[in-house]
């Protein structure tokens, strides 16, 4: 069954919406003040306490401080760290050396075959392919045929392009902006997105 992650949660209202819709993962952008989705660590702990414990927590980082990432994984505040910057296998190895808790995900922007090769070779436990479906340039789906490991899809997903995304056999659909209205998480869009992923027949 395809899993679903709703990312960019910031407010108690967002947590209420995901508690109702029950995605597999709830995502928080951390240690990245440049993002409008950034959540200060003190708020993270409060939001996590409000979250249904059956929904796993993922922190999205851009070249974030390794000690903070390892600490949040060790404490169990996060079940996975999603690396979204230029982190390499050495960086992943150093976090692994600091903690054996949690999982490490790597998001890789896919534009050409070399990006798919990088995703196949990544030392991360799981890879998210950022396909930028919301962008101006159409994504070449045939690149995904070269994937040799399970992957998730992220970047520009929304209810409208979800059927096409699910047809790739992705293990996970990750959404943030696609379930917002006027820059805020929209409980109805979250519900509809999660429901559509759940409705996909098992392959
Ligand atoms: O949302 C951000 O601004 C952000 C900043 C830094 C690292 C990660 C960030 N977001 C990650 C996500 O929200 C999702 O994993 C994904 O990229 C969602 O894509 P989209 O639906 O296109 O917003």
Automatic annotation (TrEMBL):
Name of the protein this chain belongs to: N-(5'-phosphoribosyl)anthranilate isomerase
PANTHER family hit by this protein: N-(5'-PHOSPHORIBOSYL)ANTHRANILATE ISOMERASE (PTHR42894)
Family: Belongs to the TrpF family.
Record-annotated membrane-spanning stretches: none
Keyword Amino-acid biosynthesis: yes
Taxonomic source organism: Kribbibacterium absianum
Domain of life: Bacteria
Catalytic reactions of this protein: N-(5-phospho-beta-D-ribosyl)anthranilate = 1-(2-carboxyphenylamino)-1-deoxy-D-ribulose 5-phosphate
């Amino acid at each position: 069954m395809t899993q679903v992650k709703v990312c960019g949660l910031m407010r108690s209202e967002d947590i209420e919406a995901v508690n109702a819709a029950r995605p597999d993962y709830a995502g928080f952008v951390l240690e990245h003040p440049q993002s409008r989705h950034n959540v200060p660590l003190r708020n993270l702990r409060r939001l996590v306490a409000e979250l249904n414990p059956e929904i796993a927590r993922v922190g999205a980082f851009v070249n974030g401080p390794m000690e903070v990432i390892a600490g949040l994984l060790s404490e169990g505040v996060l079940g996975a760290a999603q690396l979204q910057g230029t982190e390499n296998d050495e960086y992943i190895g150093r976090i692994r050396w600091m903690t054996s808790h949690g999982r490490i995900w790597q998001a890789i922007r896919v534009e050409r075959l070399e990006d798919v090769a990088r995703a196949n070779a990544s030392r991360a436990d799981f890879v998210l392919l950022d396909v930028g479906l919301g962008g101006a340039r159409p994504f070449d789906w045939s690149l995904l045929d070269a994937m040799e490991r399970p992957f998730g899809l992220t970047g520009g997903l929304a209810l409208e392009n979800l059927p096409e995304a699910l047809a790739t056999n992705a293990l996970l659909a990750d959404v943030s902006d696609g379930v917002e209205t006027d820059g805020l998480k929209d409980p109805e869009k979250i519900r509809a997105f999660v429901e559509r992923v759940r409705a996909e027949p098992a392959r």
